[in-house]
Each structure stands twice: as structure tokens, then as C-alpha cells.
Amino acid sequence: MRQQEKWWQKEVIYQIYPRSFYDSNQDGIGDIPGIIEKLDYLSDLGVTSLWICPIFQSPMADNGYDISDYFAISEEFGTLEDVKRLIAEAKARGIKIILDLVVNHTSDEHAWFQEALRDPKSKYRDYYIFKEGTEAPNNWRSIFGGSVWEKLPNEDIFYYHTFHKKQPDLNWENPALREEVYQMVTTWLEMGIAGFRIDAITFIKKDLTFKSQPADGVDGLVKCTKTSRNQPGIEVFLKELNERCFQKYDCVTVAEAPGVPYDQLDQFIGPDGFFSMIFDFKHADLDVASGSEWFKRVAWTPEDLFQILEESQLAIQTSGWGAPFIENHDQPRATSKYLLNQATNPLAVKAIGLMYFFLRGTPFIYQGQELGMINFERDGIDAFDDISSIDQYHRGMAEGLTADEALQIINLRSRDNSRTPVQWTAEPTVGFTEGTPWLPIAERSEVRNAAHQIATPDSIFQFYKAMIALKQNPALETLTLGEIAFPERQGKPVFLYRREDAGASYLIVVSLSEMRETITLERPVKAVHLYNSQDYTIDQHLLTLPAFGALVIEEEK
Ligand code: GLC
Ligand code: CA
User: What is this structure's pTM?
Assistant: First the structure.
């Protein structure tokens, strides 16, 4: 559907995981002054907005996704003054700041929760979900493993947590709690941020019967998603949040909203939707098994991946605008995940970049993705920080895997893979810090580092820079605003998509084949605007691509 044009449709958003971006004071932890120091790098790359993962006060059980004060900045990241300076310095370079809004839960160290524990009669008790009983009220499993219920010491009372036990869920049924949230959101919007990425927002409504469900694992528990994700009635809260906060500002909102079926997209991202856009995780989930064999890696083909992207894009196009991405702080590196033994092949890395970058939506780039960073290979559980990986390791062994098998699984899928320090140089601590990095580096590489790639004309960094420049070329606006269509795929591992409007037509061609491939072009070629290898030929209507060749072609209209 052709909507009225919005400013955020032309953005290129770069995601920063602050702990691992750049350490300005050598304590081994990335920080806000570190982001400020790298603004010129980001401006050179060409991105126009930064989404910064949570920087608020937090005991860091889940690295900031457990907030203990929404109005204070975590000391290790800096001060409120630093944040204001970041907003101003970024603005001076034409870059906007998007913060992370985590309101499904707080930290158990938040004053509200502490007060709720201290005084059961306080109003804060009803800010969370408490239930009396000697046993857990039901058999729902939390996202990070174990029951969603945690018992209070010395009391027959439990509280509810979708994620870790240090992340108690807020009770959105309580209007007073919602009011506090809206005021907090407004305060931050008033400070001049451009908008929010909104965390785990489809979890805010629970099935209030809290009934047990048939178990889906040997632990006797059942994934809580069926009963606590995108439940009927959630639309009341999301509409209110939008009306009370977002609509009053010309802000951008991108929601982490898993569990929204395509036929409900209209409510979420349609003309009167709750959000500007939502992430679709279908392609990220393509190799992840569920149920009792959750630890297996599902086999897939490039065709499966292309099919998922196509279905997603066509569904989103009927309602609104997308948020294409291939990496974030919850995923392993896209190179290792999608390219397997080709993860370090720069041509292949550029190819998956082009595969998603010109899809219809606002593209997201995760820190280090523009350098082709890859997964690590840890040799012991001690090298892991991610609570979810540590849980999976122990759960795997409890279910009969050997320690080596369990380790292998988390090496492949750990969220820590993308949370390692950004590789700025080839130095021992990769130019991230002169101290000891809080999380061991993924690798020390002569090529996968920013200094090398900035100085190398055909690097992955330069390719990302070229994609961004192309997107920002006003003469090529169709690449951003045009409709998307998917020409037939010709039975080869070559992805094709077209961006088109009345004035122009572009065909993006991406081969994930390890061999040369020839495809038939439907329309005459007017120009080639970008390629990852010169080694292609166009002979009338036949295009021959080298292994992992990828091109942006302008077609005759
Ligand atoms: C989201 C975040 C993830 C976090 C979880 C709980 O999925 O992206 O990093 O652990 O929510 O807040
Ligand atoms: Ca620091």
C-alpha cells in the first residue's frame, strides 16, 4: 500500500550495543563517550540514525535489559550529560538517536519492585504480578529457561517473569503503572530523541486465567509464548501507548513484536498502526528448532531463505513499512549463520548485505556487520556471559547432551557471538580498549577490522558505504520508496527482487551459489549501479554471475 511518505522511511539505522562498541576510559566496557568518539566513523559510513541498546541504570543481569532506574544512566556507560552531548554531537552530523524502551519488565532491583517486596500493601505491589501458593501457579516456561514463577524467600508467594528471574514483568492491567510508563516515555521524547526501539512488547498481555498447558519438553513445562505473547486484549494497551506517547511526537517506533501473524500486521503497522514498523524474525528463526528437540539446527537451503524473505515482504507491503535486518544483539553473526563455510568470503558477505539492504523498509545495520565480523569458537562455558546461552548449556546437558555437544550448540547460536567487542584494529584487544574487554574478543583479524577496511577500496565496509550512498542518491529514490516485487527465481540459488514505481525500475540480483550461474533477464538493462565483483557478463538478456555475485541493475522502463 502506498502511504504518505514519512521521514523515517529514508533512514539507515545503525544498532549499537554500547558495552561492546568502543571503550573511552579503558575499563574494558564500551560507553557513551566512546560512541561520541566514533561518530565521525558512523557519519563516514553514512548512517542517519543510531539505535542504542539500553543505557539506563541496571544490575546488568541481561546487560541493560533489566532496568533499575529509567531516568538514570548506568555509571559504566556515563552520565545524563554524556547522553545529552551524544544527542547534540550526533545531530551536528545529521544523525538521530533512538533509544531502547524496555517496559515489559524492570529489574528486580528497581525501586518499584523493592517497595512491592518490602510492603505488600504498597501501591507498587500491583505494578507486578504476584500470586499466592505453595507451588508455582502454572507450568509455563520462561524464555531464558525454568518456570516463569519465582518464589519469594520464606513466603508462599510467587512473582512472574517472562525472561530471567531478575526481570519481573510489569502488570500492564494496572492503569497507574501504565501512567508511569507514559510519563517516562514522554520525558525521554522531550529530551530530543528521535524515537524508540521497543523491547519484547508483545509480551505485555498475559492469558489471565494463568492455566497450565500440556508440557512441550522433558522439564514438564510449556513455552510461555502461547499464553503470554500477543494475547487478545493487547491492542488496548498498544493503542493507548501510541496515543498517549508516540502520536504526540513525530517519532519513529520500531517494535520487537514476535508472534504477530501476517494477517494482523495492519493493526501493528497499518496507517493507524501502533508502531512505525516491526521486526519480522522469520528468516532469523530459519535454522532454530523448537519443541523437545530445541537444540537441533534445522537444515535449510537458500531457496528456503529467499521464500521466507519474499513472503515477509509481500505481507508487510500490504499493510505498511518493514525493518529489514540480518543481525542484531540477539543473533549469531549473519556471516556464520547464513554463509556457513563461506563466512569469511568477502564476496559472499557483500552478497548477503545486498540480499536484504534494498528490501522495502528501513534497513538496520548491526555494529560490526559492516566489517563482516564472524562468530567465535569458545572452548568452555566460562567464556560465555549471555544468561540465555548459559541456561541452554545446562538444559542441554540435563536432557542428555554431552558437555561438548552442549558447548557446540551454544557456540553456534549464542547471543554473545554478536556481543563481542567491535574490531576497530588488528591489535590484541582489537582497538576496542586498552584494558581487558568485558567479553573476550571474537578473533584478532588482519582483515576483519575497521582500520584495514577503511583503507581498502573493495572492503566490506566500502561496500556497505556504497549501498548506503546509493540509497541516499535522490535520483534513485525508487530504490527506497518503490514497490517491491519478486520475479520468478529460475530454479537457481539466485535471489531476485525488483523495486519499481512509475518512473524507474531496479532489479537486485544476489547469487548464493558457489558456482557461476546464468539467469535470464526479463527487461533490457539500462545501467548497473553496484556490484560486488566485476566478473559478471551481460549478453542481451543473459546475465552470468560469478560465485556469490550480486548486482543492482537499473532496467529500461
Ligand atoms: C529482547 C532483547 C533481548 C533481551 C530480552 C529481554 O528480546 O532484544 O536482548 O534479553 O528482550 O529484555
Ligand atoms: Ca568504559
Answer: 0.98
